[in-house]
Amino acid sequence: MITKYSTDHEWVKLKEEDEVIIGITDFAQEQLGDLVYVELPSIGDEVTCGDNISVIESVKAASDLIAPVSGEVVDVNSKLEDEPELASEDPMGEGWFIKVKLSDISELDDLMDESAYQTFIES
Amino acid sequence: MSSVEQILITPLYQMHLDAGAKMVPFAGYEMPLQYPLGIKKEHLHTRENAGLFDVSHMGQIKITGENAKQALETLVPVDIVDLPLMKQRYAVLTNTNGGVMDDLMVTNIDDDSLFLVVNAACKVADYKHLKSLVDRGCEVELLEDVALLALQGPKSCEVLAQFAPACTEMTFMTAKKLTIGEVECLVTRSGYSGEDGFEISMPAFEAERIAKLFLSDHAVQWVGLGARDSLRLEAGLSLYGHELDENHTPVESSLAWALSKARRHDGVRPGGYPGDSAIMKQLSEGTEAKIVGLQPEGRIPVRDGTLIEDDAGNNVGKVTSGGFGPSAGKPIAIARIAVNFIDDNSALFALVREKRISVSIVKLPFVKQNYFRG
Fold this sequence. Notes:
The complex is a heterodimer of chains A (123) and B (374). Chain A has 123 residues and is of the alpha+beta class.
């Protein structure tokens, strides 16, 4: 299973041929601080790479989740609506945000692999 | 003079870095926003135990002179003349329109000198403004090489008492000179968290040592600006630049309670401060808008600047401070709302990202204030 990373600190896991799960990285959740509210897109929404697709609110501020790929939202982690802290506690697992059916799988090539992402956050 | 302003640090800067703080620029200073514990836990820790805040960026000003009390009354709508020895009072500096230049704490430390704590962002302007009291025979000094620590929370008294047992004799809004770790400090039983607590003024070079003394107690944790803000918001306390500014009088900012009887039109020393006529007119006739608490429905935080409208979509006000209250366990906000909509039971809405969120006007504070009144 391939996991890629965006410069906006999201991870993108390829689950099936053309479906990915998207969430925020550990680095992102640490920067955001305690999450108190997450607003998710709706199933069926078409998203385009670079769009604001979700709002993440911490005690301090609101931030956007930027679509790292384009496609159709086929599932959302509705648990986050009542337990936004899942995204802080287990960002790579239980705290996932959405599942997207890719419209252009080649967009994954523009994302970083883990070692490139590590270098990115250290710089 | 250089055109690039140098960022300032407090005497405890290195300690914050060592504690793993996330530092941010605030009012010209590099200040800790939060420590590894995080805003929410720092907030809850303060409500349950004791939080230590570095507030050394705030201005500490001393006004000395035989007429210091009378002189300061020419700048504030508050009774200073009858402020008893070693008592503290909340006050505001007003401009000629009655707008608020800053809010501050005034302590009568001996009948010829007053000790003021003012907001960091306003301290230079406040100092200039207060300098006019030199003409009234006062000496005005913006203290340098001093630090200010706030120890806040239900356990703050037992923590401080280990080093300065006499702190237990103090009640809310009183002051005492206490020796802590062989250093003489000026201590007031006050703060801005809504909890019992102390603010401790000390020489800068002793700050690190005294902070370490407090932190040696497990009940004490560093708390940053993030939780300082959520604590004061829950406690319903005004913040300069949010609820208070130079375009609104204390009456419009729901601070009429702070305007002493003695300085009102039927008082013993009515008026005599900048903007007195505008303020006294509003005290008798009322104002168009007021500061109130807002309870948003649901979980979406309603933040500063959010517009508030009525059912028909007419704007009726704006959120001055808003966010999530960790102790309240829900979003909370303070807003400036047109008075016709405050007495009314009309439905109000906050506009967040084009969504209308139902909000209701509530009494402040959101959590009970726990001051020690003896």
